[in-house]
Amino acid sequence: MRHFFPRSCAETLQLSKQRFSILVFAFTLLLSAFSAWAADLVRHTVDSDGHAIAVWEKSPAAPQALMLLIHGRTWSTLPDFDLQVAGEDLSLMDGLVALNIATYGVDLRGYGATARDASGWLTPDQAVRDVTTVLQWLRQRHPQLARPHLFGWSNGSMVAQLVVQKHPGLVSSVVLFGYPVRRDVDFGARLPDEPPREPTTAQAAASDFITPGTISDAAIAAFVESALSADPVRVDWRSLEQWRALSAPAVNVPTLLLEAEFDPLALDDVHADFFANLATNDKVWVVIPGGDHAAFMETPRGYFLRSIDSFVFRGAGPPQP
Question: Judging by beta carbons within 10 Å of its beta carbon (0-12, 13-18, 19+), is residue 221 exposed, middle or buried?
Answer without folding.
Answer: middle
